Amino acid sequence: MTKHNKKLYIRIFILIVFSIFLAFFIFAKEKKEIVENIIQESVIPSPLIKSAIKTQTSNLEKNPVPEKENLEIKNTEDIILLLGKEIVNLSFTPNMFFYDALIDWKSQGKIEFAGKNYPGLGFFVTDIGSLHAGNGKYLLYYVNGKEATVGVSSYRLKNGDIIEWKLK
Fold first, then answer.
1. CB 112 within 8 A of CB 128
2. DSSP letter at 4?
3. Which residues form the Transcobalamin-like C-terminal domain (predicted)?
4. What CA–CA distances, in Å, run from 146 to 19, 70, 91, 150?
5. Average pLDDT per run of 10 along the chain, which is 168 residues long?
6. How far apart are alpha carbons 72 and 59 in whole angstroms?
7. Is the dihedral angle over the CA atoms 106, 109, 110, 112 positive or is it negative?
8. How many Cα neighbours within 13 Å face the side chain of 145?
9. pTM of the complete model beyond 0.90
């Protein structure tokens, strides 16, 4: 093989390697844009949530009480939500997921929050109350002083929970 042919093969090899790297970075950029374009989910309560929020009244025929009194049995449980310096006492129906409760409370005007839904991962809260993720900080929630191990879409609220949101 002549010296001229060696240089030609080396140049072709370098050109092929460069083309592969260039193609890789273009493909990686397109994937990043796809991930960044995940549509922010609008927070609209579902009909199931609305139908689950009911108050049960007692049957006056089964429980003899004075005629003028009506008894109401609350079918709700309570939590305390800490949003920075704000403390909010909230009620929810038993066995409710945290995300569903957030939607319900927002529709009732009790809290404000926003976030993004990631398919396969769940809903990620980016803003709640006066706390806003950004500048390398993310919103994390803690249940009874311990960092949550699941997202808001998977956590079932329990009566008496104290849920605190922190920027980390």
1. yes
2. H
3. 109-168
4. 49, 41, 21, 12
5. 81 91 75 48 44 41 50 80 93 94 95 92 92 93 96 95 95
6. 10
7. positive
8. 0
9. no
